[in-house]
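[Help] Beginner question about ligand-bound structures

Sorry if this is basic. My supervisor gave me a protein sequence and a SMILES string for coenzyme A and asked me to "get the holo structure". I don't really know what that means in practice or what format the answer should be in. Inputs are pasted below exactly as I got them.
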Amino acid sequence: MGEVLGYVRLQDKYAFPEGTGVLSVNGLAVAKAARGRGIGSILMTAVTDEATRRGARKITLHVHGTNTVARRLYERHGYTVEGTHPREFLIEGQYVDSLVLAKFLT
Ligand SMILES: CC(C)(COP(=O)(O)OP(=O)(O)OC[C@H]1O[C@@H](n2cnc3c(N)ncnc32)[C@H](O)[C@@H]1OP(=O)(O)O)[C@@H](O)C(=O)NCCC(=O)NCCS
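Answer (accepted):
No worries, everyone starts somewhere. Holo just means with the ligand present. The predicted complex, written as structure tokens, is below.
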């Protein structure tokens, strides 16, 4: 039987017509023991392929400013920072920015 090593969730960002074609990555994770082997990259390639298949024009996501591994992964896949929510989260006593990243497909 297979083992789940990771998952990614891709959803429509908006429920109204003006936002058609904008998708959102709402969750990406790889099992700790399986990290650093390119599985995250495979999942992000699958995101682009699936978004293209759906005719999407833009993919967006949020990432903690301190999550350097995830940020590098997204940058490698063509995502750029569109904006920042400063001091959005409080993690172990430290405020952390939430970054809005996006990639255009068309
Ligand atoms: C972020 C996350 C999904 C990345 O998953 P991953 O499978 O480790 O990602 P990859 O293996 O594709 O890339 C990670 C690193 O491994 C390297 N790598 C990939 N394949 C490799 C290989 N065959 N040999 C050596 N290194 C490799 C990549 O170059 C990358 O290095 P870098 O960070 O120094 O640039 C994972 O760390 C995770 O689940 N983190 C916790 C949850 C999380 O932060 N999710 C994102 C929320 S926005």
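A couple of things worth pointing out: The domain at 6-104 is CATH 3.40.630.30 (Aminopeptidase). The longest helix spans residues 39-53. Feel free to follow up in the thread.
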